Amino acid sequence: MGALQSSPGQPEYIDLAEKTGFSFEQIGVLHKRFKQLSHNETTLRRDHFNEIPDLACNPIRAQIIEAFFDRRNYRQNGEGTVDEIGFEEFLVVMSHFRPPSLNMTDEQRESVRKEKLRFLFNMHDTDNDGTITLEEYRHVVEELLSRSGALGKETAKSIADAAMLEVASISMGHMEPDEFYEGITFEHFLKLLAGFEIESKMNIRFLNMDTTTLCK
Amino acid sequence: MPSRTCSHSPSGFGKSLPEQGLLLLVVLVLLEGSVLPLGAASSPDVSHQDDSHNHKVADHGVNATKKVFPVLDVDYHHIQTPFEISLWVLLASLMKLGFHLIPRLSSIVPESCLLIVVGLLVGGLIKLAGEQVPPVLDSRLFFLCLLPPIILDAGYFLPIRPFMENVGTILMFAVVGTVWNAFFVGGLLYAVCQIQPANPSSLHSIELLHCLLFGSIISAVDPVAVLAVFEEIHINELLHILVFGESLLNDAVTVVLYHLFVEYAGVGTVTVMDGFLGVISFLVVALGGVLVGAIYGILAAFTSRFTSHTRVIEPLFVFVYSYMAYLSAEMFHLSGIMALIACGAVMRPYVEANISHKSHTTIKYFLKMWSSVSETLIFIFLGVATVDGPHSWNWTFVTVTVILCLVARVIGVVGLTYIINKFRIVKLTTKDQFIVAYGGLRGAIAFSLGFLLDQNQFAHRKMFLTAIITVIFFTVFVQGMTIKPLVELLAVKKKQEAKRSINEEIHTQFLDHLLTGIEDICGHYGHHHWKDKLNRFNKKYVKKCLIAGERSKEPQLIAFYHKMEMKQAIELVESGGGVKLPSAVPSTVSMQNIQPKKPPPAKAAERALPQLPKGREEEIRKILRSNLQRTRQRLRSYNRHTLVADPYEDGFSDLLIKKQKMIELEKKIKEMNNYLTVPAAPPDSPTMCRARLASGRDTDFKPAQQQKGNKICPDPQAYSMKPVSDSVPVIQVDLASPQSPDSVNVMDEFRRANQEEDQGLMMKPPQGSSGSNKPGEADTTRDQQRLMRCLSDPGPSADEDEDEPFLP
């Protein structure tokens, strides 16, 4: 293993390609990147991610890294987190960001949408209970504003409150004064971002060229 | 141009009296315009003679034949130019009014067509009157006066995010598409003109370069026409920005090609070297234009940083800097349009952070007004110039031109889309391609460029002009009129009217960071990565430089949130509270529903409820106060002129309704508190300084709920009021009742309100000590000043497009 493993043969790639939808070239490139990040080991750990310099100034770095180790994103209906991931899990998580292909039926497009929104939902719902509570949402907004110093804390709370109120209004419509809105479920989340066109937005361009030498 | 629904005219063709009056007015204006120049011909002699006579009388004082002193004199020449200009502008504006009075017409025929028809009529009238049609579409007038407002309006309000996301596609269409069009049309025209060797016609004398020049003039998609037509069909954002962006950016190509061919048409040959120089020239023109615009934009932004004491002339800086950018670019033969776009787009985020709300509104409405008038004038002049213009009709040339333009456009769009789709994530479908191809309208720019041609150098100038006008008419009339039904027929996605919600904004930001992170992990430095780098650069260096005071550090999410809540507050006040809370979804959900339940606490201190900064509460009261202030002032003046307060006068019932509304308004404001929870801006913000200048009247009132309380302590922040001293009986309404000179202590209000209100929403009273008084009051001041910024102006109508932040 390790340095001896040059590139997995085509059969493994075929399997991965089928599972994730990437092309062979893209899988090859990503595999190279995986090895670069993991220093040629077979698994990635959180500290490997922490070493990426560009990621350091990203306000939601922690959540992004967590997403890779979240078993809910492996499409196997698992739960909980792991401490290290192999190339297959890496690729599966990456495949959430593939752009939808041109000729897609409406159902396919809908399922792609749901999948991407599920990914986002999992990122917000850190305690894995199926709902995004007010605390979790506040945490999201705080992270987003984490670079703005003291101003952020107070405002983050208010913004999160206002956002939560909006979700509740959209999803529940009418509530008695003593009812309590538990949190955003996945259905509410879908409803909330219905007009967001996430299938067009949540994509990155996976190149067929090898750019690992250019980036750190 | 938003179409206004006509509220008072009945459906069908019956015209009511105001409309007839308007038509009469229009006719009179037209007659006046055409008749006066006739009268002017005779009067100057008289007036001159009078002048000289009077002169003589004055100088010599001798008994020269003393003319009767001209009590009334007509001196038309003195004011001729401004008068005629004003007359044209008036005509254009009246036409715009008139169209919307005719109910069905404006929905079938786009405004641009109607305006051209009006221009034709006016031109015809003038010709019938025997007068010489004024050369209205003079190229200098067009390029220096009529075009810049439209382009500035487009550039200032350009939605940056969709533009930048599609900039590659737009550039492809603009550059490659226009070049392809020019060469295709020019080349094939030449070929067509050369055929029929048996029958030598005048067409044979056209040279290739002249044809190519003609092709380059006719191939550019015109922003004015596109704007005019696309405004009314409301297609989705992507298509709109594609066609519109293309029409703006192809100016650089047009400029280069035009100058290139004009230069070399005289010589007769073009070498490869010249072609190479042309390419270099294109880069210089395009990038130079953008650079010039960006420089002026930064200057404008920097200037606006210091305008906190002279708010009145803030809009002037925006306009003047932009115009100078345009003129400077034109001076160097760079692309003036691109300079204007760059200037507007660059300066906007910084200027908007610096200027007052009123200035923002001023800029918006001035730009819209000027661009609207300009556009109307352009189309009318197009009609007039058609009547006047030297024509030389040649069936072959004109029809071939029209056909070739269409064919070239279609082939260009299809071919380019094929290439572009390889690089796009969201591909362009066939429907999209069709709309892009069909939306390639030609307009007045082509005509003006043709007009600029030198008659001596280009023998076929008249024919060119005729052909250009025909193509313009064809695209504007045929394509312009049919695009709307076609959009409906093809079920093209329309513009989404949904308001931007705070959740979408949060997720947009979140997604940006997420995608940047994933790109970094992948090692692909895609455009998210670079956008993020640019954002960080902007935040770190540029904003500090160009934005005054504390707002330079305001993160974009918070800025968005501010805007939203200001809008809500304004809407709420304007609706008078009688209308339901202007939220997207009416619901009875309030803050308490989402708060985590805690065991019922005895003291308010233990409630885990959102603490409203005290300042917020005061803000709300100020909203109520100033709104009612207006009421009361009306009341006062009303009373001063009427000796007896007659309860059966009209005003009385209004007052009762207003009072009712105010009570409801307060309730709504309480519900609204969940939005108004952002802490106030720090003391040195522009809002404070501005508000100090704007701070106004000294009146006071107590909201209805406070009537019950009787604990009144002096509060230095609240307005103090002048006691009513006149003996005129005043209509006594609770809200307007004269107050004792004392005013209300904010803290005590809260405590009382807490006890009285039984709604779920609570306000936590501050912890008693006087030490906390100070920061609270300072808070209050800040909030109150900040609110003055928005309340002094009713604000623009909700127009989401402008809320796009720069580099989101």
From TrEMBL, chain A:
It is found in: Cell projection, Lamellipodium; Cell projection, Ruffle membrane; Cytoplasm; Membrane. SMART domains: EFh. One of its GO terms (biological process) is cell differentiation. Belongs to the calcineurin regulatory subunit family. CHP subfamily. It is a lipid-anchor. This is Calcineurin B homologous protein 3. GO terms for molecular function: calcium ion binding; protein kinase inhibitor activity. Keywords: Calcium, Cell membrane, Cell projection, Cytoplasm, Differentiation, Lipoprotein, Membrane, Metal-binding, Myristate, Nucleus, Protein kinase inhibitor. The lineage of its organism: Eukaryota, Metazoa, Chordata, Craniata, Vertebrata. Residues 112-147 form the EF-hand domain. GO terms for cellular component: cytoplasm; lamellipodium; nucleus; ruffle membrane.
TrEMBL record, chain B:
The keyword Metal-binding does not apply. GO terms for molecular function: calmodulin binding; potassium:proton antiporter activity; sodium:proton antiporter activity. InterPro entries: Cation/H_exchanger_CPA1, Cation/H_exchanger_TM, NaH_exchanger, NHE-1-like, NHE_CaM-bd. Residues 90-488 form the Cation/H+ exchanger transmembrane domain. GO terms for cellular component: basolateral plasma membrane. Residues 584-688 form the Sodium/hydrogen exchanger regulatory region domain. It comes from Lates calcarifer (Barramundi). Its main location: membrane. The chain crosses the membrane at residues 21-40, 109-129, 141-158, 170-192, 212-230, 242-261, 276-300, 365-385, 397-421, 464-487. Residues 798-808 have a biased composition (Acidic residues). This is Sodium/hydrogen exchanger. The keyword Protein biosynthesis does not apply. Keywords: Antiport, Calmodulin-binding, Cell membrane, Glycoprotein, Ion transport, Lipoprotein, Membrane, Palmitate, Phosphoprotein, Sodium, Sodium transport, Transmembrane, Transmembrane helix, Transport, Ubl conjugation. One of its GO terms (biological process) is regulation of intracellular pH. It is a multi-pass membrane protein. Residues 737-808 are annotated as: Disordered. Belongs to the monovalent cation:proton antiporter 1 (CPA1) transporter (TC 2.A.36) family. It comes from the Eukaryota. It is found in: Basolateral cell membrane. It catalyses: Na(+)(in) + H(+)(out) = Na(+)(out) + H(+)(in); Li(+)(out) + H(+)(in) = Li(+)(in) + H(+)(out); Li(+)(in) + Na(+)(out) = Li(+)(out) + Na(+)(in). Residues 776-786 have a biased composition (Basic and acidic residues).
